[in-house]
Design brief:
elongated; alpha+beta; 3-stranded antiparallel β-sheet; two-stranded antiparallel ribbon; 5 strands; single chain
Length: about 110
Amino acid sequence: MSLTTEGEAPGPVRFYLACDDIGCPARAVFDLVIHEPPPPIEDDLFGHMLHSSSLAAPYLEEQGWTYTQGVGYWCPTCSTPRSQRRTPPKPGRRHIARRQRRDPRGPQ
């Protein structure tokens, strides 16, 4: 899972997110202010641990990130089917400047 947090609710929480698709370099960092405290850790361990991420889920969906159980988070590009993705522009040929040939007679 590639979603990690820094900070504790209630208050500002920083989220770090990385795309789990193989080879994708997409990353996202954002801050959310979470007003509700998590449930007590003694009563609900998973609810306490997942409190911040469950409140961030709607924001992530708005940004185009998708979550698949057992796979993880995918960025908006990887979430789009390949047939519907825009192809990146092909790089053009660069003009490579050639250096001048040296005079075989040496400096004049």
